[in-house]
Write a structure and sequence with these properties.
The complex is a heterodimer of chains A (about 260) and B (about 220). With about 260 residues, chain A is of the alpha/beta class. Chain A has 10 helices and 9 strands. The longest helix of chain A has 24 residues. Chain B is globular, with a radius of gyration of 18 Å. Classes of the chains: A alpha/beta (about 260), B mainly alpha (about 220).
């Protein structure tokens, strides 16, 4: 039996809901807690606005207001389709936790004292991170097996932000490719030991949004596979050297335009 | 609703496209060169700007500005001395940026000196600028006037653009775009000639690198 806690970026995160829903059905996996970051946090807003500028509005609108409806116009496989196939009945993590009697906590920040106290009570073997900022040492050191995260790019080459676009801008679509990487988190950004990377076939995906949606589906599968491997003691870790890859940051609109042209 | 959100984003988005930059650079260059005498120390920057604008096809030069031959070796020596005086410290530490970082790293890099030092410190500066964005480069190792602080940022943007081109690393051009947009927001016309030229050079180097790297 492995005890797992899921950290989520927002209560209605479809990615987190799908992971939690499936973990609940896995044998010898106990979903021992769900910690959700509250959207109402001024520091978080300032920090994200500082990073994204006015484009933060799009993120708030898509994730906070449109929620699952943001996938409606998509032509490719995506999380909403996966939710239909799996018949996911829950609109929020709170509902899911209530239904299955799972301890549930809302925090302003995953590194907050409340979060630390909760995790120290639950003492998970593994934490599954589905988003919500950087994780500090006080949380990283709690689970005996560590914290797993799935990154929307191929590691170690593409660490950080907007890596789908960066892969196209640097014309690495064939050599490195688009993909997702399951890894253990450490103090750096996407620098922890790699557990597994998968590349995706672009299929009919013609935009970065569609590629990202395909990747999100892959990320759910990778997360679940990661938990099973920890449960079955079948984990192999590949450490990353600092200079094995580069750190990427939010892409400027002019470069994004260029990246789009590379993709076509 | 989605269209409304997009309209708000477009309205408030401060990013400046290439055509706006071209118009701004040409206009500023013309205003500056209306005068006919320039101190020797600003001629180098002005001459570099002229060459970039000409190569981009944005101006046609009839007469070149006479510029004295510069003893570059002394610049390299000065940059190496600056590096020695860091006493093993980093160019940015606890969000405090060492004065002269952009200019000296650019000189060292252009002469392929201290390659590992330049690489690691460039990476460190990139992280600082990208993480702190509008709040980056606000603290320096010395107390600077507003104009000197402006010039330090422009030097950094020049370094990032040139580094991007020399090392074919788009991440640095990405940061130069952002730094220059930040400078554009605080650029006020009458600044001293030196800082105006530094900013024009920063934009010119950005466009030169963009022309080469984004094709």
């Amino acid at each position: 039996m492995i005890r797992v806690v899921v950290l989520a970026p927002i209560d209605n995160s479809l990615y987190a809901r799908l992971v939690c829903f499936k973990l609940r059905q896995e044998s010898d996996v106990q979903l021992a807690g769900i910690v959700v970051r509250s959207p109402w946090n001024l520091n978080r807003f300032i920090s994200e606005f500082n990073r994204d500028g006015v484009r933060l509005l799009r993120k708030v609108f898509d994730k906070g207001i449109r929620g699952d409806r943001r996938f409606v116009e998509s032509a490719e496989e995506n999380l909403a389709r996966l939710a239909e196939v799996w018949d996911l009945p829950f609109k929020s993590l709170r509902n899911l936790a209530a239904e299955y009697n799972i301890p549930f906590l809302v925090v302003s920040d995953h590194n907050h004292k409340k979060s630390e106290e909760f995790l120290n009570q639950v003492l998970p073997d593994l934490i599954v991170f589905t988003g919500g900022g950087l994780i500090r040492e006080n949380i990283l050191s709690i689970p005996s097996n560590g914290i797993i995260n799935c990154h929307t790019g191929i590691l170690p080459q593409y660490r950080g932000m907007d890596v789908v676009e960066w892969t196209a801008a640097e014309n690495q679509m064939d050599d490195v490719g688009f993909g997702a990487t399951l890894h253990l988190m450490d103090k750096g950004v996407d620098t922890g030991p790699i557990l597994k990377s998968v590349r995706i076939d672009l299929g009919n995906a013609k935009s970065f949004e569609q590629i990202r949606e395909k990747l999100e589906v892959k990320m759910v599968e990778l997360m679940l596979e990661g938990v099973r491997r920890f449960r079955d003691h079948m984990i192999t870790r590949t450490n990353q050297g600092e200079q094995d890859g580069r750190q990427y940051y939010v892409m400027h609109p002019r470069l994004k335009e260029f990246a789009k042209l590379q993709l076509l | 609703m989605a269209g409304f959100v997009d309209a708000i984003i477009v309205f408030f988005d401060t990013h400046i496209d290439q055509e706006d930059i071209r118009r701004f650079l040409v206009k500023e260059y013309q205003m500056i060169t209306e005068g006919d005498s320039f101190p020797e120390d600003v001629r180098i920057d002005l001459s570099s700007i002229e060459m970039i604008l000409e190569n981009l096809g944005w101006i046609i030069l009839e007469d070149r500005l006479p510029v004295k031959e510069v003893e570059f070796i002394s610049h390299v020596d000065a940059a190496e001395l600056w590096k020695e005086k860091l006493y093993g410290d980093h160019v940015v530490s606890r969000n405090v940026v060492k004065v002269g970082a952009g200019e000296n790293l650019d000189i060292l890099d252009s002469y392929s000196r201290q390659a590992e030092f330049v690489r690691s410190e460039a990476e460190r500066l990139l992280r600082h600028v990208e993480y702190h964005r509008r709040r980056s480069m606000t603290l320096f190792s010395e107390i600077l006037t507003e104009i000197d602080s402006f010039k330090e940022k422009a030097d950094m943007a020049v370094f990032f653009s040139r580094y991007a081109l020399r090392h074919l690393d788009l991440r640095f051009l990405n940061a130069a775009f952002k730094l220059n947009e930040g400078l554009m927001r605080i650029y006020r016309r009458p600044q001293d000639l030196d800082s105006r030229l530094k900013f024009l050079l920063a934009l010119g180097e950005q466009e030169k690198s963009a022309r080469e790297l984004l094709k």
